[in-house]
Amino acid sequence: MSAGESGTGRRGREARRATRLSPKKIGVPFITRKIPLTEVLSLEGLQMIEANAEIILEEIGVEFRDDPEALRLWREAGADVQGQRVRIPKRMAWSLLQTAPSEFTQHARNPNRSVQIGGSNTVFAPVYGPPFVRDLEGGRRYGTIEDFRNFVKLAYLAPIMHHSGGTVCEPVDLPVNKRHLDMVYSHIRYSDKPFMGSVTAAERAADTVRMAEIVFGKEFVDRNTVLLALINSNAPLVYDGTMSGSLRTYAAANQACVISPFILSGAMSPVTAAGTLAQLLAEALAGMALTQLVRPGAPVVFGTFVSSISMQSGAPTFGSPEAMLMLTAAAQLARRLGVPFRTGGSLTASKIPDAQAAYESANTLLPTLLAGVNFVLHAAGWLEGGLCSSYEKFVMDADQLGMMQVIAEGIDLSEAAQAMDAIREVGPGSHHLGSAHTQLYFESAFFRSTIADNNSVEQWQAEGSLDAYQRANKLWKEMLASYEEPGLDPAIDEALQAFIAERKASVPDSNV
Question: Prior bond to 68 cis, omega within 30?
Fold first, then answer.
C-alpha cells in the first residue's frame, strides 16, 4: 500500500470515528434490555435473606445519629426508638414502601435526554466521588473544577453515557462549603443530561433543589423528578445526620434518593454473602422507608455498593466472584420489593488503566447488565478503588458500555436479519462480502470500538505502535476539542449565577 493510500485510509477511519463521537448524536437516552435476567438465588434463598433482614431491623435496629427529626418520624410511625437506635417492627418497612413508585422518569432539561429508571431499563452514569484525577501525561493529582467540567463534558459527548452523574471528581481547589454550587452549575451549563445533587449537608441539598427549581420551575420540580441523590449508610447499621438530613430534604421535594449501603464484606459486614445480603437489605429498607415517612410516593432507588476485602491486607478488592454473586442477588431482592435498583459499574483497584483494570471492570460491568441493574453509577472513569477519576479509563469504559448496549438488544430475529435471501444468493463455496445483504448492513453490522486496534501489525507499527492507554489519551483530547455547549437560556443562566453569588456571599469560606 502506498503512503498516499495509507493516509487516505487513516483519514477515512478518523472521519468515521469523529462522526460516531459527534455531540449532536443523542442515540438512545437509556437502554431497554431485551435479554433474560441472570439470577443466583432461589425463592427459598430470597425468603431466607428477607427473614434475616427483618430480624436485624426488629431485634438489633438501625441508628439514626444526630437527626432528631428522623427519630421523631420513626417514633410517630410506631417504631421502637431508644436514644438514636430505631427498631422497626416486622413488615413495617415493606409496608411503607408500598407507596414508592416501581419506575419513574428523571427529567433532563433536554427532554430527549430524560431517562426512565426502573423496569427493564438501564441507565449509565459516570464515576462519582474521587478526590484525585489521573491522565497519561499529568499522572495522579488532586481534582480541580476544571477537571470536573472536563468530565461533565466527556459524559455529555459520549452517546452511551445517559447521565451526567454527580461528583465526577472532587474540585479541591474550591472551598468545601461552596464547591457544590459550582459543581451543580457545571452539570446544568455544560450538559443537558440528567444529573445528581449534593448530599454533603442538608443545606447543600436544599441549594441543589433551589437551582433545579430555577431551571425547571418550582411547580414542575414538586410534581416531577429532576434530581437523583446518593445516600450512603455507614455500615454496619448507621445513618449519620448528614446523610439522613439530605435524604429528608430531597424526599420532601419529591426528588429521588438512591439509598446505598456502602459495604466491604469482611470489614463492614460478615465475610459471607448471605450475611452481607441480609445486613445490606436491612440498611437499605430503613433508609428507603424513611423517604416514605417524609413524603409518601417520593421516588426511591434501592442501591448498594458491596465488595470484599483482601483478608491478607485489608484493602478493598473489585471484580471478585463473591461481589458478582452479591450484586446479582441484591438485584433480585430489589425486584421483589418493587423498586428500582442501583449497583455495579466499571470498578477496579488498579492504579492505572492496565490489564488488571480491564479484567476487574469487565467482571463487574457484565454482571451488572445481566443482573438487570437500573441505575449504574461508576460506569466510566473509576480507578484506584474509587479514589481516582481517570480521563483515559473514562473513554475506555465508555467503549465497553457501547458493547453492553448491543448485548442488551439481544438477537434480531426479523425477516431481514434471518438473511435467507443472502444465503440463497451466495450459495456454496462463495463469500458474502459483496452480497446485497452485506452491502445493506455494512455500516451497522457490528459494534465498532473507538479504542481497539484491529489492523495488521505493520499498520499498527506505522501509526506509532500505540497501546490502548495511549489511544485513549488521544481520544479524550479529541473529544474535548470538539465540545460545543448545549446552550442554556440566558435568563436561567443569569438567575443561577445570581443565586450562586448570593449563597457564596452569605457565608465565609470553609474547609468543612
Answer: no
Q: Which residue type occupies 101?
A: P
Predicted local distance difference test score (pLDDT) of residue 114: 98
pLDDT at 434: 86
Model pLDDT, residue 290: 98
| pLDDT in the model for residue 313 | 81
Return d(Cα 263, Cα 277) in angstroms, integer: 10
For residue 132, the 8-state DSSP code is: E
Residues in Cβ contact with 403 at an 8 Å cutoff, skipping those fewer than 6 apart: 447, 449
Identify residue 470 by its one-letter amino acid code.
Q
Q: Which of 342, 317, 347, 318 is nearest to 330 (CA)?
A: 342
Q: What integer pLDDT is reported at residue 439 of this predicted model?
A: 87
Measured CA to CA, the distance from residue 87 to residue 78 in angstroms comes to 10
**Cβ neighbours of residue 154 closer than 8 Å, sequence gap 6 or more:** 126, 161, 391, 394, 395, 476, 479, 480
In sequence order, what are the residues at sequence separation of 6 or more whose Cβ sits closer than 8 angstroms to the Cβ of residue 101?
Answer: 118, 297, 299, 339
**3, 467 in Cβ contact below 8 A?**
no
* pLDDT single digits (tens) 11-39: 444 544 444 444 344 468 999 999 999 99
Eight-state DSSP code of residue 30: S
Closest CA to 57 of 230, 299, 268, 288: 288
* Whole-angstrom distance, CA of residue 300 vs CA of residue 250: 10
Q: Are 380 and 161 in contact (CB under 8 A)?
A: yes
Q: Which set of grid coordinates corresponds to residue 90?
A: 416486622
Instruction: Describe the crossing of helices 202-216 and 179-190 by its angle, rounded to 10 degrees.
Output: 30
> Which domains are assigned to the chain?
1-410+447-512 (3.20.20.480)
Cβ neighbours of 56 (radius 10 Å) = 21
Output DSSP code: residue 486.
-
**What one-letter code names the amino acid at 268?**
M
> Mapped to the 3 state alphabet, what secondary structure does 157-201 carry?
HCCCCCCCCCCCCCCCCCCCCCHHHHHHHHHHHHCCCCEECCCCC
- Residue ranges in the chain modelled with pLDDT below 70: 1-27
C-alpha torsion angle, residues 240, 241, 242, 248 (rounded to 10): 120
Q: pLDDT digits over 311-353, tens only?
A: 778 888 899 999 999 999 999 999 999 999 999 999 999 999 9
pLDDT given at position 7: 46
Per-residue pLDDT, 23: 38
Query: What is the structure's pLDDT at 14?
Result: 52
57: DSSP letter: I
Question: 3-state SS of 365-390?
Answer: HHHHHHCCCCEECCCCCEEHHHCEEE
